[in-house]
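User: My instructor asked us to take a sequence, write out its structure as tokens, and then describe one feature of it. I'm not sure where to start. Here is the sequence I was given:
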Amino acid sequence: MKMPISEAFDLAVEVLRGGGLSRQGAEVVAAHLVDAHCTGHTFAGLPRIPTLLEGIGELTGGVLEDPEVIRETATTAWVDGKGSLGYIACQKAIELGIAKGRDQPVVIVGACNAYYSGRLGYYAEQAARAGHVVIHTNSSSAAVAAPGGTRPVLGTNPFCISFPTNQGELTVDFSTAAITEGAVRLAAATGEELPPGAAIDGLGRETSDPQAALAGAILPWGGHKGFALSMAVAALGVLAGGAALPNEAANHGYIFVLVRADTFLAPGEFQDRLDLLIDYLRDGAASVRIPGEQSSKRRDRARSEGFVEVPDEVLGELRALRDAQV
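Assistant: Let's start with the prediction itself. The structure tokens for your sequence are:
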């Protein structure tokens, strides 16, 4: 059903606070979830809340919501998430990166000891809007099988690059798995089937049943090539202090590399050149889709209308959680 964005935000804050987060922490997470919903990435939006609440209790025994900067130079920072939700640790990390990037052409920030941070583009686009090219990776807990394997050995390990342009942000943001874990959970909640080639059951057989997939594993995107890219993201997570073995669910590793767009070119020249590239790629065809463009349009439309579409099953579950917390 259609729901006012302000009501969706308030409901998310209320349920998250009931699950143990402070108001400040709940608002950081809710802002991210509602934005994901507005961009059309529903699987990374409000449907994640029940899983997040489970994680707060099972993975950390209670969230410590004040990530700490444990090492810092003029061009680097290392954030210890203190067992918090990744949303909170990553928001702190990207804000640090943007602040340092005002005086430095290249900044690297790592974060660890946190779990699940949502849509990577949410963080990268903040820095792109501030004039940076951003590379952001996230090593996550095991959910993906190796090609030919039968058990989860790597995370869905998303990878994101965002670029500033004169027309907004050009954002490449994708999971190295055939489907995200959030999409599998959303399909399970709404009774939908998974696309072919996305997952296997506990016996290693391909399945379109999301419940069977949750008991089995997701498949890597692009076979061996996607698996190799996922391994690279896992290694970058270790560089940030994340878990070496992806069965440590509460210790994801996050890397943020920010390169100011005027590092080599005159101010504004990078954006002008990128606009030329985008126009060339379109070649006058409105059907050519530029990465991140549709998400941005959906967000603008949702914000303009003031409403977001929330599946009835998800809304019912969130209201039940809220009522049970009272």
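For the description part of your assignment, you could build on this observation: The radius of gyration is 19 Å. Try explaining in your own words what that tells you about the chain.
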